[in-house]
Fold each of these.
Amino acid sequence: MKDDRFLVITGLSGSGKTVVSRSLEDLGYYCIDNLPAKLIPIFVDLWTRREVEIAKVALVVDIREEGFKTEFPVVLETIGKKISPRLIFLDASDESLINRFSESRRPHPLCKNKSVREGVQMERKQLEGIKKLADEVIDTSETNITQLKQLLKSRFSEKKGIPIQVMIVSFGYKYGIPLDSDIVFDTRFLPNPFYMAPFREKTGKSKKVREYVLGQKETRYFLEKLFDFMDYLMPNFIQEGKSYLTISIGCTGGKHRSVILAERLKEHLRGNKYSVRIHHRDIYK
């Protein structure tokens, strides 16, 4: 039985190895790109002896390495005496690969003095033997990036009940927008507790401040629209294959309104069974 904790990804140039590598990283795999074939047995020794703290690994290897087509089958047989790696070969039709190289405007690694078509055909012939060794061949000819991500998630994800991880960040615009934000909501149009003496030195964690902000008609209307918007977006993000989502909510200083609205959004999303973490970046500045 093959061990899905140790994957080896190879295949034709342009078939999607980079997309697969990034998707597997999102699924908890430690991905190593273009590790020389001769070093793979050394890495396997370290992994089996647990001298590297890596639970799941995916090695991406391909024809970029000189001698790959002859050395790799030998290496695969060698490591097969210690582990049972799953070899996945990514394939695609000639026309699909040629179109992808044309769109990316990158040369084929084997076509220094040849056309892209000749490079694709040459590589296909050189990798015939390795393809026959594969435990699984994935044809990406008619598969877009989203579909490929979904395929990998359904095959290798251990998070069956948690399709997406959400991080909500409250912040103050005066300190800058969080750079890793996927979505940013601006709450500066809401009544500001800072200008009320009893609330100025408190934060959005205060019950009285929270009651004041949530009691405003503008806040209630905003939350209604915010919840509707996120209820629409979340299933689409999951469908697209997104694994992590950072939602940033800002006010002027990041102490009052953004904190309260972030907490309410957290409660709403958790109520819909999403996995949510929250970070109040500027609450104590």
Note: Strands lie at 3-11, 30-33, 57-60, 85-91, 136-139, 165-172, 183-186, 244-251, 275-280.
Amino acid sequence: MNKDTEYEKFTQELYQQLVNVQGITIEVLHNVELEGKSGQKHQIDVYWEYEIAGIKHKVAIECKNYNSKVSIGKIRDFFGVLSDLNNVNGIMATKIGYQSGAKQFADHYGINLKELRFPNDKDWKGRIKTIDIAIQMVIPDIKQRIPLFDNDWLKANIALQKKQITYSLTGLTNEMIIYNEKGEKITDFFELDNKVPCLDKIDKKNLEHIFPFENAFFDVTGLGRLKIAGIKYIYDINIITDKLIIDALETTKAILKDAISGEIFFFDNKGKVK
């Protein structure tokens, strides 16, 4: 596929995108041959037609993949084709732009002149091109989670030997569950981890915080369900800073600019038109 054909197909793709966004259910075609009133057949780069309220609308696009501005002669040639066709609206698309005489001629005869290309710095005037976002993440580093057992309850309900009892807790944080006296879940370590105070937003070490509980119980391997007065957290606060830059150029596919009015449509890589 040569570069001129690539540009025609690109124009077809973006105009299909544009008519879809505008709610028109038609197929935008490439390389169509139309017969004029003179009997002469004309090759049209991009073409579509649709009917509303019994009235048929036809659009022909002439693509000029030029590296310089389109001259008035090319507009006259296209005007001759349109004049031979039956009620077809004309659009010319190019990358660089149009000479002043070409604009004047096209404006007088109702030919739409478009620049279809990748945007340059001037196209972003009055629009947001780049967004810089400063990100600060406050991340608690949990070092210990210590159940604070209700000693009075333990003495009254558990036959403990005089020697010191050791215990271990194993499992995922969402498996470390705190129950009420009916055996219903109150919370778990995963939920408590997300409630650890981190309000100062500065690096700190060995902070302590206690989540108090009433009529709460915790399962301990070998001892069963024991009453607790709270959970003590020992943790560090780590502050991580980062910067996110959103550049519209990375998501912009092309622009469609009206050479007369200056109106611009931006096409992104996800099929949206703005």
Note: The mean pLDDT is 88.
